Amino acid sequence: MTDSTEEPRSLPDRPNLRHLKDQAKNLLKVGGVKSLTEAQFQIARLYGFASWPKLKAHVDLLEETGQLKQAIDTNNLDTVKTLMTRNPMLHRARLVMPRMGHLLGLRNAACRGNRPVP
Which residues contact 100 (CB under 8 A, 6 or more apart)? Predict the structure, then answer.
């Protein structure tokens, strides 16, 4: 599909797993590969990932990070706690927010299991 010396493509700001799966299916349909697994591998490599599971995990983490940011923006501590309990990787997620102090207080409160001071 791509020359191994090419620079990997950048994922869009908000990558969509359905779109990536469709890219793999289209690659299979046009005969560029012999199986869906091979097509998914080629798509992963196109974006600079070692495998489809690594690409999928990255996209899933980005989606959950967006959900975490939304929960923080709306002061939804229960959702923050649920997301961070379900995926400990979110404890290290990079969130760009204008009120960083508020973010750290809410995230730390969620980790401790109590409500932040308003």
Answer: none
Type of residue numbered 84: M
Q: How many CA atoms lie within 13 A of 14 on its CB side?
A: 4
CA angle 82, 85, 87 (to 5 degrees): 105
Nearest to 84 by CA among 107, 63, 66, 100: 107
Is residue 61 within 8 A of residue 93, CB to CB? The reply is: yes
End-to-end CA distance of the chain, in Å?
Answer: 53
Tokens 């750290």 correspond to what residue?
104
Residue 60 burial (CB count, 10 A): 13
What does the pLDDT look like over 79-109, one tens digit per residue? 999 999 998 888 887 776 555 544 555 555 5
In angstroms, the CA 10 to CA 8 distance is 6
pLDDT reported for residue 109: 54
pTM beyond cutoff 0.90: no
